[in-house]
Structures are given as C-alpha cells and as structure tokens.
Design brief:
This protein has one domain: Aldolase class I (TIM Barrel), CATH 3.20.20.70. The protein has eleven helices and eight strands. It has helices spanning 20-27, 44-51, 74-80, 90-95, 100-112, 125-129, 133-144, 172-190, 192-197, 211-215, 232-243, and strands at residues 4-9, 33-38, 55-57, 84-87, 116-121, 154-158, 199-203, 222-225. The structure holds 2-phosphoglycolic acid (PGA). 2-phosphoglycolic acid is lined by residues 9, 159, 164-165, 203-206, 224-228.
Length: 244
C-alpha cells in the first residue's frame, strides 16, 4: 500500500503570525503519513524554517528566468525553501487561463529542478451534470502529464471544481469511480508499474468529519486540503484520519 499523503493549500491566506499553526501541525504529525503545506510564496522561506515538514509553492512559471513580471521560477521557489509546488489548480486554470500544456510545462520545470509536483485536475458542475466528468478529467490528466512522470516526484489531485470551498463533497463512490478512471488513463500512458506508483489525492471540502471515509476509499492515497489546512485544530484530525 502506498503511504498516505495529506497536503495543505493555504491559497492567498496566512501571514508570518499564522506560521505558528505549522509548528502545531509538525508537533502532531503521524510518522505513517506524509504531510506538506503549500503556502503563499512570501511565506515559503519562513515557513520552511519552522515547519520541519515539506513546504511548497502554489504555482510556478515554466521558464527558469526571463521577462515574466510577477512570476516565480522553479529555481527561485527552491532557493526560498520549497520542496514542491501545486500546478494546475482549478483556481489558476480558470482565473489565470492556464491550459493543460501550461500545466505540463510547469510540472516539467519543477522536475528539472528536483522539486515535487501536485498536479490538479477536476471537472465543473456543468460537465458532471452532462455526464462528461470522467472524460474531461482523464483528458486533463493525459494532456497535463509531464515527461518523466513518476511517483517519486508527482502526485495527482482530483478536485471537482464544484466541491472546492463550497462544503459540497463528492461522494466516496464518485471519488472511487473517478480515481479508477484516472488510474486507467495513467496505466495507458505510463504502464502499470509507473502508474501504480503515482499517488492520487482527493481535494474539495475535505474536513475532519469526512476525511476518514474519503481517505480510505479505493485508489485514494491522500487529500489536498484548502480551508481546513489553515489551522492545526482542523488539519491535524485529517492527518490522523489518514493514519487510522
Ligand atoms: P477546500 O479547497 O478544501 O477549501 O475545498 C481544496 C483545494 O482547492 O485545494
């Protein structure tokens, strides 16, 4: 069985004062679970000094340097102390018009610089209601999949867009069906052994209350947690649920 992986995504939240939460999380970590938190880029350096577990960025530019005002490259986030970055979060695919090709290039930039990646995919409510969820998500996986995709640096997070920050959680059955579809797409692209090594996370309104059911569903190797990762009081029970 693959080790469970619980990753937090602070989005545009947090401050130097909030880093005390990371220390409280570190103090309660279960050795059976991999834990990581993606913080705002301004906090990476300080968070890394205090957390004692991997700290990441929430995005990265595909290029190593150049005329890209406001962007940060993989070497820059690595120098700040990031061990990984999230790529392809739906808030960036939608808000910043990032394409599958962009997401793939970003993941490849991370790998070039020996950083890990959490690659997000997910369907809209309209796509789900039209019966297209699996087709949309597996197409995203295949088009976003970086060269050299391997489980020692890449995890894939299935985050149905309608479940993010809404309190609406996908059912365990929906998640199992989708994760099975993603597994099949990965097997097709990479072969069984490489596909088996890539961890699949679920994200979207994961809380202490629903974590146990989701985290122990078939083909679910962990969770990507937004709102409930902001405090140790909410995040630690999710880590414990992963261990249990
Ligand atoms: P949420 O966010 O847990 O607040 O729904 C999840 C995510 O966007 O990664």
């Amino acid at each position: 069985m693959r080790r469970k992986f619980v990753a937090g995504n602070w989005k545009m939240n947090g401050s130097l004062a909030a880093l005390a939460e990371l220390e409280a999380i570190a103090a309660a970590i279960d050795p059976r679970v991999d834990v990581a938190v993606a913080v705002p880029a301004t906090l990476i350096h300080a968070a890394n000094a205090r957390a004692g577990f991997p700290i990441g960025a929430q995005d990265v530019h595909a290029a190593d340097s150049g005329a890209h005002t406001g962007c940060l490259s993989a070497p820059m986030i690595a120098e700040a102390g990031a061990a990984f970055a999230i790529v392809g979060h739906s808030e960036r695919r939608q808000g910043q018009h990032e394409t599958d090709a962009d997401v793939k290039a970003k993941a490849e930039a991370l790998h070039r610089h020996r950083l890990d990646a959490i690659l997000c995919v997910g369907e809209t409510l309209d796509q789900r209601e039209a019966g297209q969820a699996e087709a949309v998500v597996t197409a995203q996986v295949l088009a976003s999949l970086p060269e050299g995709a391997a489980g020692d640096w890449l995890a894939i997070a299935y985050e149905p867009i309608w479940a993010i920050g809404t309190g609406k959680v996908a059912t365990v059955a929906d998640v199992e069906t989708m994760h099975a579809a993603i597994c099949s797409a990965l097997v097709e692209a990479l072969g069984q052994e490489a596909a088996d090594a890539i961890r699949l996370l679920y994200g979207g309104s994961v809380t202490a209350e629903n974590a146990a059911g989701l985290l122990h569903a078939a083909e679910v190797d962990g969770a990507l947690v937004g709102g409930a990762s902001l405090t140790a009081a909410k995040f630690v029970p999710i880590i414990k649920a992963a261990a249990g």
